[in-house]
Amino acid sequence: MAIEITAVRFGGNRKTEDAIVRYQWLGLDNGQIGESDKPTLVEWIDKGNRAYVGSGVNRTDVGVVKPALSEPYLRTYFHGKQTNNLVKLPPF
Q1: N-terminal to C-terminal alpha carbon distance within the chain
Q2: Residue 48: left if φ>0, alpha if ψ -120 to 50, beta else—which one?
Q3: CA-CA distances (angstroms) from residue 1 to 17, 27, 48, 74, 75?
Q4: Angstrom distance (rounded) from CA 40 to CA 23
């Protein structure tokens, strides 16, 4: 299954990838709209599911970052390079 993340919710004043606490998404296979908290979506992607931000030539992959001293979080990657597309999404 694959989803497109369409909006985010931050847990405070910081606007960084690790400060995102919830994600709104669109199922690319079935058009389902939903939302997930950070731990749930991290686990879902770790199980081999795919998430993206954007579409067409602007589509970027979403991957899991696992820092040594903090909780895992999501970050976008475009052609293997880290980007910050998640923080540019609208809030919900």
Answers
A1: 23
A2: left
A3: 23, 8, 9, 17, 19
A4: 10
Residues 12 and 5: their CA atoms lie apart, in Å, by 20
DSSP secondary structure code for residue 79 in this structure: T
* Full-model pTM: 0.93
Integer Cα distance of 1 and 92 in angstroms: 23
For 15-51, the pLDDT digits (tens) are 999 999 999 999 999 999 999 999 999 999 999 999 9
Q: How many residues does the chain have?
A: 92
- Please name the residues in contact with 56: beta carbons below 8 A apart, sequence gap of 6 or more: none
